[in-house]
Task: structure prediction
Amino acid sequence: MTLRLTTRHSPLATCLALLLALASAKADPTPAQIAERLDLIRRPNKSFETRLDITEMHNGQPTQQSVLRIMARKLDDSHFDTLAICLEPAADKSKTVLTTNGEVWFLDPKSKRPAKVSPHQFRGKFFVTDAISTSFAADYDTELLGEETIPDAARKDVLCLHVRMKLKAKANLTAEMLEFWVDKQNLEPIRGQFYTKNGKLQRTAYYAGYAKVLDEIRPTRVLIVSNTERGLVTDVKFGDITPKEWPAEMFTKDAMERVMHGELP
Result:
């Protein structure tokens, strides 16, 4: 008589298989970890300078091109002060925006002094400075909504974790609520949506052009689709991202005119 040993229906084999599956499974990150990862990927973790090449398009046709110089000074683990100076076109040359302590100041070369403004007054190019200053981890509560497969900027399907972020407190920020879809494998942002406090969708951003910049894989291109102006798409390209320390006195409204004229730093 031949003795046959099979594990097909063995309780022990089933338990072993289950344990192996649990050991190999990678737990999803927490909402807080996703927010922290988004902050790290969106911008360097140190003071820096970058150039933005911005193209506004209506119904697929370029209508305006701009170039901005962005200077960002790290304040703490979460926040930055930023200065944005318009280099092109000639009509907007030297217009300067300062974002500091949750306030936004705008200086036109034709004006004698900077004016305090709301981030909601700016679209497209200056929206980026507010995004750099903001910390998702510190300024928003994050909720994981689940998994979803969506197309990326190249229309390739990506399995994503879908999160919703709401402001922790009243603040002078562009978006009261955010939604992000991040690649489940590496937590790189694929798509972001930005809402008003009334729940109105303002814009949708698609992140692309991933490259290694300052020791991290980051998007170097963002396509921003307006949900309030039909047919408007803003193509933002980041270039020449370099670490650089800036004096604190640059990032005040009283110094804006000197910065605008190249007297600081």
